[in-house]
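re the bet — no i am not wrong, look at it urself. input seq straight from the record:
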Amino acid sequence: MRTLTTAISLLTLVSSAWAQLPAPNAAGVSMGHLHLNVRDPEAHRIFWTTLGGTPVKLGDMDVIKFPDVLVMYRKAEPTGGTEGSVIGHIGFRVKDLHASLEKWRAAGLKIVPGASPHQAFVIAPDEVRVEMTEDTAMEVPIANHHIHFYTSSVDDTKAWYVKMFGAKPGKRGPFEAADLPGVNLTFSPAAGPVAPTKGRALDHIGFEVKDLEAFCQKLEAAGVKFDMPYRKIPARGISIAFLTDPWGTYIELTEGLNRL
């Protein structure tokens, strides 16, 4: 009995520590996924699993699981990397940056120094920039952290995500920001014109939504136009909808990914 109790306790601890998608905020929204267009799916599988993700399948789709986010990818010819797009990079937290960088260098990953000893960039295939920030207090080796937007209007972009998704407004260091469960949305002024995300290596970001159909109706009432209206995907056990924010970020809304 003691062995069984210990095993259950350990299983609970592991599943809690490595829970994938966080509970939603009051608006029913949390971080869901990042979806990539990639030339070489195997190269991306190696890259993301080297970072510490776990490969799984969602139907016929390749997925890499991390705490607080799912990374999905499909074979396609991207029109460009993240730099020069409205989303200039994505970010993860790591518990031990020095040890992680040593491991990733040994595996042949491309690394660019950051602005401080506690920050660096790892460049994925197809020029996807991934910022790594050290957080020694975290309980897992790596987890999702932020999405960094470059926009013509920081205040308006921040306000839109607060209004539409219930993001909590604030700051991340010197940057304007807003938080959703599982992700910080960081906003910086663009130095010049930036490209929409659709078709780029980071094609779209995804939020997981509780009661997605009702949520889509609420967004429509607020004036949001959907690229693809709400629909169910029985083969994958999820529901989806697509929209584009006013600055060119392609967004997928899902319900059901938290069961993956």
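see?? The chain has one domain: 19-259. told u. also Residues 1-19 have pLDDT under 50 and may be disordered. so pay up
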